[in-house]
Amino acid sequence: MGHGIIAWIIIGIVAGWLTGKIMKGSGFGVLMDMVIGLVGALIGGFISSHLGLGGVGDHGLIMSIVIAVIGAVILTFLVRLVTGNRSAEL
């Protein structure tokens, strides 16, 4: 059973906010944090499904947020590598 649009928005907001806290950066703003969280959910879902754990939509809300945060942290790390923004210590 997959998540609805409201659940995806909540996952994106929470995952983006948590990623901002984990990565010790200033964040990208509320809207971009949400986008980072949603894209992180795609990345995390891709990774978890290839590890045999199932995708983001295959789990409950909390586990979906955890998977999305992992994906968003990976995405933020890669963006910082590409852009050279290393002002925040990892």
Automatic annotation (TrEMBL):
InterPro entries: Transgly_assoc. The chain crosses the membrane at residues 6-23, 30-49, 61-82. It comes from the Bacteria. One of its GO terms (cellular component) is plasma membrane. Signal peptide: none annotated. Keywords: Cell membrane, Membrane, Transmembrane, Transmembrane helix. Belongs to the UPF0410 family. Its main location: membrane. It is found in: Cell membrane. This is Membrane protein YeaQ/YmgE (Transglycosylase-associated protein family). It is a multi-pass membrane protein. It comes from Tunturiibacter gelidiferens.
